[in-house]
Prior knowledge:
The complex is a heterodimer. Chain A contains 13 helices and 2 strands; from the N terminus they run H-E-E-H-H-H-H-H-H-H-H-H-H-H-H. Chain A has helices spanning about 10-35, 50-90, 95-105, 105-110, 110-125, 125-130, 135-160, 160-170, 175-185, 190-205, 205-210, 220-230, 235-260; strands at about 35-40, 45-50. Chain A has a two-stranded antiparallel sheet. In chain A, a hairpin with a 3-residue loop joins strand 1 and strand 2. In chain A, helix 2 crosses helix 7 (about 135-160), helix 2 crosses helix 10 and helix 8 (about 160-170) crosses helix 9 (about 175-185). The longest helix of chain A is centred in the first third of the chain and has 41 residues, at about 50-90. The radius of gyration of chain A is 26 Å and the shape is globular. The N and C termini of chain A lie far apart (about 55 Å). In chain B, the strands form 5 sheets. Chain B has a 6-stranded mixed beta sheet, with helices on both faces. In chain B, strands 16-20-17-18-19 form a 5-stranded antiparallel beta sheet, with no helix packed on it. A 4-stranded antiparallel beta sheet of chain B has the order 2-1-4-5, with helices on one face. Classes of the chains: A mainly alpha, B alpha+beta.
Amino acid sequence: MTRRRHSGWFWAQLAFTLLVCAFLIVPVGMSMLAGVTKNYFIGIQSGVTLEWVVKVWTDYRHTIFLSIKIALACLACTLLIGVPAAYVLARTQNAFTRTIEELLVMPIAVPGLATALALIVTYGTFGGFRRSWLFILVGHVLFTLPFMVRSVLAVLSSIDLRTLEEGARSLGASFSQRFFGIVLPNCRSGIVAGSLMVVTLSLGEFNMTLLLHTPLTQTLPVGLADTYASLRLEVGSAYTLIFFVIIIPLLIALQWASTPRAAQRPPSDDADFDVRSPPQPAQPSHRAAPAHVRS
Amino acid sequence: MSAPDGIPIRLERAGKTFDDGTRALEPTDLTIEAGETLVFLGPSGCGKTTTLRIVAGLDQPDAGGRVWFGSDDVTEVPIERRNVGMVFQSYALFPNMSVADNVAYGLKVRRVDEAERRGRVAQMLEMMHITELAHRRIDQLSGGQRQRVALARAIAPRPRVLLLDEPLTALDAKLRETLRVEIDRLLRSLAITTVYVTHDQAEAMALGDRIAVMQKGRIAQIGTPREIYQRPSSAFVAGFIGAMNHVSVRADNGYLIGSGTRIPWHGSAPGGQIMFRPEDVSIHDGSVSPAVMEGRILSAFFLGDHTRLSVDLGAGDPITVRTEARCSFAAGDAVRLSLPAERILWPEA
């Protein structure tokens, strides 16, 4: 390994990159620091305390639990609706399913406030429903479903699903045997990535929830806004700190799950174990097998 | 293992029209004998894969068509319940399972009990020489290994019929030859009714008890490899299996006369063109029977055990001559050829 001499241009680029990173990360650090500072206006020299964290935990932990409950319920719904939907979309390629696929992103494209208003206008008069956490759940499912569908669909489109299923059928597998034994295991990575996405998005959702919630159904982000608006800055920051503690492991897991595993290179037939086959000349990888040609 | 009894397959007016109106297969009658290996051979788009899929139960024939397995009408029976084994061009192995689990899959869905399943899987792996791969994942296998797993998986449940859809196409030439020999050995030992689809004539000749050459959704000719090669029914079949020369001639007073050609002929002359194989022409050796063709060598390729000449007879396409003569040839040389009259073929089309 030789030491490479970097030009001045390299150092300039590095400095710029670090500056941009700092611009983005410093506020995060400041906010977390504020959450454990005795008096933010004096600064960190006023001392470090967990008082604010405890206060948030005491007064707002119900919002945290509700957020987690909604996130998990939302995950269950998107799995039950999204995975079969992705399967149908992958299997049936026609103008209708392509339209559905496009329409699915509408809840992301339309501002959350508009979606929330539409929900309130339509269902707001059903008192029990309006007051329950299920009302928020409906909004979250609407918003996160496209992420689940897209994520699973992307994996399903990358494998030759039809031929895999035909293979299973030729071996005598019924629909449910194929679906649970072949389809689901083979889109596992898409389901995992989609699930983490759904949970993260649901935990952090604010736009819609701001309108959908009631004082008794406050979620974490709504509570956070509440604390910043009405309490000391340190309390809001401590709240942020707790939010980070919940969300960062999820983000890391999301990153990990969506990184494709470094696939092991399949051996070439040169290395065929079968001694009876003569040595083969070098050949291209068999992964590039030609697509199935219907003749 | 005990050889599963083969059953005959019969197609009755089985045709296939796709949703967009393309006729993939004209209504076809066909019987595949029990235990026989029938190869569908043809260029892409000729309907061979469609025919296979109809036999498999992956596609339904158009209304009026019927598929019989022995005395069972299986037209309405989906592939899941036809008890067939199938090998796909892309193998369709399950990436979420190990080699052993792939092979066991057909037994598992049939609820074969664990002990028997394990025994059968071990037997299959051994039969295909892949025992040491049992616990590998599919993406850790080479193309040739995948092919063996696909075969083992297809025959593990002891199907009544084995269907192979261009199983060797994704492999390189040398490996293809090795596996062809193995598939041949396997098919002989199983004695199972087999339908094999390929566009490779060498595969078809090697594996088929009979070959059905397909063209534009029809069976152009069906017969043993020898029949197809030696008595092709049309110029298409002749051209698809092996090389074939075509020379325009007219019958004239006991001879067939063409450019550079004068062949003694006493039979009827059904057409204006004769066909013959490159290996049936030979360099005239100066013996008593006169040479029948004269031309000029356009190119000569020395290929070790034989030389391939391209000879211009003066008009029409140059003919190809495969000769084992040990003399050297050069482009531009004049050459005299003999051709036994019994090797001359008349295309009907």
